[in-house]
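Discussion board: Methods & Data

I've been asked by a reviewer to show the raw model output for two of the constructs in my manuscript, not just the figures. I'm not sure how much to include, so I'm pasting the format here to get opinions. Each protein appears as its amino acid sequence followed by a line of discrete structure tokens. Is this the kind of thing reviewers expect to see in a supplement, or should I convert it first? Here is construct A:
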Amino acid sequence: MAVEKASRKLKEKKKQRDEEAAEELSLNVEGRERFQFPRDEEELKQQRSGDLSAVQHRIQDVFQVLADFSKSREAEKDRQDYLRLLCDDLCSVYGYNEWLMRRLMDLFSLGELMEFLEANQVQRPVTLRVNSLKTRRRDLAQALISRGVNLDPLGEWTKVGLVVYDSQVPLGATPEYQAGHYLIQGASSLLPVMSLAPKEGEKVLDLCAAPGGKSTHLGALMKNSGLLFCNDANGDRAKAVVGNLHRMGITNACCSVMDGREMRKSHPNFFDRVLLDAPCSGTGVISKDPA
């Protein structure tokens, strides 16, 4: 199948990247001066609170030690000593707390960890989802361009996405926004709804619906037919769902505020499809909000 072939290609590319990263980290290790584990805690604190260039250089040195640990480590230091030093240095450079950095270090390989941290330093572009119930992407793009918005289609994989590079007007206050012609929504948020692929006339449940971006996308794909059930356990957040449903012109929806675990008792075997985008850690918004 095409999906399996694409998956194999991705795995092969990842394996190649990992091998190249390991080769780069170990390059010239033999010819380099052996890294000396720092002993002065006060000096470490001063470096981490001031010029970070020494800290960044030490991060690279620790990476090289870990890449060839048996040959490069100091005899009295174990791997955990180097990982603790690396964790503290990464927290200083990238501004993460120790708890989150340790979780990331458990989750990723060292090469993947650096890719993740660097990616979160890059500002993500703003993306819009066109409301197909009210307009076409081409018409909306022309209207926004006339208002001073620099944008392009998001990609071949979506017919309703636009990526915004810069704007002379607030995107959340244009007449088109107020009329429900688009929603400001992350590109990755389009994928769960596309994967669910609801059909017209079906009964669909969005179990954790707030603030309503995916719910309104579901309603548009269903073309306001069937039944769209939007639930959220938080009553205050559910108000945003109601507002977005009204603004985007979704008329096949009803809303509830209840524990999603109770839904199977009140509506057993009722829905054709269920979307569960459960509350998460929120680490995906680090690039938008460093706090």
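Construct B, same format:
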Amino acid sequence: MKKLSNTATPEILINIKRNMHHMSPAMNKLAKYILENYKKLDGIQIHQLAKESGVSEATITRFVKEIGFQNYQAFVLQMAKVNTKKEQSALSYGSIQEDDDVPTICSKVFSMNIQTITDTLSILDTDKIVHAVEAIADARRIMIFAQGRSQVTAKSLRQRLSRLGLSPCLYTDAHDGAIASSLAEKEDVVIGISTYGRSRMVVANMERARKKGAVTIAVTSYDNTPLEQFADIVLKTVNNENLNFGYEPSCATVTQMIMLDCLYILLYLKDKEISDRYINTSIEAVEEEKM
């Protein structure tokens, strides 16, 4: 059984993963080759990479610009730096095999989640978290929009904010969401949670609320998503798993909940005395519900 690692994945590899969802098939093929073979790319010439990855040199040129490099040489230099760093865990849900024993499967599941948390911390934009905290603290109303598995994150956030006396509303139904976002105002904060940033209901309500003047906050795990277009503040985590992996790994949900816990703690500390009063009152109420 492999030992768990908490070394952060190099930012360039995180960046590639976060942009794969909107790449062309050829660039996606190249991205997968690079992620699987990055240790072999030191000093590799563009024609050699084209041959080994099975794409054209033109695709490679477009790819490096897509992920933020001015030219191919700058990309190769950065990849050389990647290979001087300590190796990070290669375990993932996708590496689980039918003949793996229980300890091995558990190790892979834990390793992937730990790696994703570590990677998220390495790229976390704390300035944006502070900006989100200030907006929420000053809000007249807080609306949260989510669907599918993102509801897990949304319900966790709603409960956290509720314990601080902020009374957020969570909308998971398209019609209920449309009504709420249509009535949004400048004093309101609207939070849209979508791992891939493409949930139609979430994006539509973020767009509608922003037009009404509300401050919009997006929580997502990928770059260049439709959700970002209608967000004043974008809070991003890392999702290290393959987009088409059938198990629906929990990595993105876990990292989003942890990131939003940072936001919750900062809100709590803004007025600890009042926060303690609300939290203690809610604790007493919850205790009454226990046997």
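Answer (T.O., handling editor elsewhere):
This is acceptable in a supplement if you add a one-line summary per construct. For B, something like: The chain has twelve helices and five strands.
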